[in-house]
């Protein structure tokens, strides 16, 4: 095709499809990087919490890690849900706003467990 010719509509749709596919792949890769960053932040927050017991530096790092992991990866959300199912006492410490932000639900009532 010469430089002065306009592309045909079929050429434009092929170009937009390939650009959308590339953009989707980049978005998926970026979300996985965010999820891995969240997992690393959770792991790093534990030793930091023990090193700085007076100033709770590890807690905000862990909260940001949980949010990144839960919002960007289904595997991370499933893993955290399984931890909460195995250890229901952990959910008691999580604030309700965090549960809504990460899992999209309110905290489970420990008095009335779901059947």
List keywords for this structure.
single chain, 115 residues, mainly alpha
Q: How would you characterize the overall build of this protein?
A:
Helices cover about 75% and strands about 0% of the residues. The chain is built from 5 helices and no strands. Helix 1 packs antiparallel against helix 2 and helix 2 crosses helix 3. The mean pLDDT is about 80.
- Tell me the distance between the termini: 66 Å
Level of helix content? over 70%
Protein structure class: mainly alpha
Q: Residue ranges: pLDDT <50 for 5 or more in a row? A: none
Which sequence of SSEs, written as H and E, runs from N to C? HHHHH
The total of beta strands comes to 0
Identify the overall geometry. flat
Strand count, sense and closure of the main sheet? none
- What's the helix count? 5
Radius of gyration: 22 Å
Mean pLDDT: 82
Indicate the proportion of strand residues: under 5%
Write the layout of secondary structure elements.
Blueprint: H1 9-51, H2 58-72, H3 74-86, H4 88-93, H5 96-103
Quick summary:
By secondary structure, this protein is an all-alpha fold. It is built from 5 helices and no strands.
């Amino acid at each position: 095709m010469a430089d002065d010719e306009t592309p045909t509509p079929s050429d434009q749709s092929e170009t937009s499809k390939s650009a959308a596919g590339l953009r989707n792949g980049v978005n998926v890769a970026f979300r996985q990087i965010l999820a891995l960053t969240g997992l690393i932040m959770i792991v790093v927050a534990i030793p930091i919490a023990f090193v700085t017991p007076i100033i709770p530096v590890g807690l905000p790092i862990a909260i940001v890690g949980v949010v990144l992991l839960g919002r960007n990866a289904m595997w991370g959300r499933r893993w955290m849900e399984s931890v909460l199912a195995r250890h229901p006492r952990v959910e008691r410490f999580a604030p309700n706003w965090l549960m809504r932000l990460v899992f999209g639900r309110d905290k489970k009532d420990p008095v009335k467990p779901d059947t």
